[in-house]
Design a protein that fits this description.
This protein is an alpha+beta fold. The chain contains four helices and three strands, in the order αβααββα. 60% of the residues lie in helices and 17% in strands. Strand 2 (42-47) and strand 3 form a beta hairpin.
């Protein structure tokens, strides 16, 4: 999820930038980028030897909507279960 969120914070992110600023290895970053791309969560773009990634904004909006629903449910659940 960290990679998805890092890409989503900007219009577009270079793959090398993600790898340089991550605590995990480049092959791991590459694997997750491929998985996110295959799942339709991010859109890759090649320019010469560089890869750039951007988040599909519809997916990004859905993610934030689900987070809001989860937060609302959590507040509701906590309010109902207070003794």
């Amino acid at each position: 999820m960290e990679i998805f969120e890092r890409i989503g914070r900007e219009a577009e992110v270079a793959g090398a930038t993600l790898a340089d600023k991550s605590a995990v290895s480049r092959p791991t970053i590459s694997h997750h980028q491929k998985e996110l791309s295959t799942a339709g969560r991010i859109k890759p773009r090649k320019e010469a030897k560089c890869s750039f990634y951007r988040v599909d904004r519809r997916v990004w909006a859905d993610k934030h909507q689900l987070e809001r629903i989860h937060e609302s449910y959590g507040r509701y659940y906590n309010a109902r279960n207070r003794f």
